[in-house]
Amino acid sequence: MGLFDRVSRVVRANLNDVVSKAEDPEKILEQTVIDMQEDLVQLRQAVASAIASQKRSQQQHNQAQTEANNWQQRAQLALQKGDENLAREALVRKKTNAETAASLKTQLDQQVTMVDTLKRNLIALEGKISEAKTKKDMLKARASAAKANEQLQSTVGRLGTGSAMGAFERMEDKVLQMEARSQAAAELAGADLESQFALLESGSGVDDELAAMKAQLLGSATPQNQAQLPGTATEGAPAKAPSTAATDPAVDDELEALKTKLDQL
Fold first, then answer.
1. Using CA atoms, how far apart are residues 168 and 166, in angstroms rounded to an integer?
2. DSSP of 93-155
3. 64, HSE (Cβ side, Cα atoms, 13 Å)
4. Which percentage of the chain shows pLDDT scores above 90?
5. Tell me, what's the pLDDT at 164?
6. Other CB atoms closer than 10 Å to residue 111's CB: what's the count?
7. Which of 11, 81, 111, 217 is deepest in the core (most CB within 10 A)?
8. Kind and range of the H or E element at 64?
């Protein structure tokens, strides 16, 4: 294979590839229908021209045949009048017109056949153009649907694996971080106040519990025991120092236990 053939093949292949990529189905369909309509116009003009030529041939044939008939009658008239030479001349003219009529008849028959063929082709082309228009609209709709589906699938693919979903995930992480920082700031802002109230609540609770226990002990003790409790005295008598013999061992144990709990706080 020569170098020129190889280069020519490469050039044709590249050109075909460029043309194939540049072909838009919708535009090609529109242009194809336009070309078919132009062909239809040209075929109609050809049919009209053939019909006109057929009519001229028909008129010429009729005229030649009429002339042949006229010269036939004149030849008969000349013979009837006894003029043989004139009759012979009339027959010569009749023969010429008859031959012309016969030639025109052959041409006319061919034209009739050609016109019939052109008419059939014209009808077939009109049917094909009508069918092409219908198919063109259908193919254009299918092409538009295919383009829309291709764009949709491309968009879905980008959303599924591309940067769009990655951006959403990054923004979601940032929102979670912002919420976490907001909660931490709120907890830090209220930490000191909560601790202060906790100290107050714990302190007052111990004092209240101790006072309640003292009141319970005072309410349940007998008048003799009340005289022995710390901080109590009989009516009309001075307060005496508490006696260890009069102390209740159970109370002392519970008091010691409370002190131990307070030390552990």
1. 5
2. HHHHHHHHHHHHHHHHHHHHHHHHHHHHHHHHHHHHHHHHHHHHHHHHHHHHHHHHHHHHHHH
3. 18
4. 16
5. 59
6. 19
7. 111
8. helix 25-80
Entry pTM:
0.44
Structural contact between residues 265 and 202, judged by C-beta atoms closer than 8 angstroms? yes
Q: Is a pLDDT exceeding 90 seen at residue 191?
A: no
C-alpha to C-alpha distance for 150 and 161, rounded to whole angstroms? 16
The one-character DSSP state at 231 is: T
Q: And the tokens for 129?
A: 């153009």
Closest CA to 47 of 104, 124, 131: 124
Please compute the mean of the pLDDT values over residues 139-158 and round it to a whole number.
75
Among 13, 16, 45, 36, which residue's Cα sits nearest to residue 133? Answer: 36
**SS3 state at 22:** helix
Greater pLDDT, 146 or 23:
146
Enter the tokens of residue 265: 């706080």
For residue range 250-261, what is the model confidence (pLDDT) as tens digits? 777 777 877 777
Residue 235 has a pLDDT of 44
The CA distances from residue 148 to 30, 142, 151, 157, 262, in Å, are: 20, 10, 5, 14, 80
User: Which residue shows structure tokens 């006072």?
Assistant: 211
Quick count: other Cβ atoms within 10 Å of Cβ 94?
19
Q: How many CB atoms lie within 10 A of CB 5?
A: 9
Helix axes 84-161, 25-80, angle to 10 degrees: 170
Name the token pair of 140: 């254009």
Rounded distance, CA 141 to CA 149, Å?
12
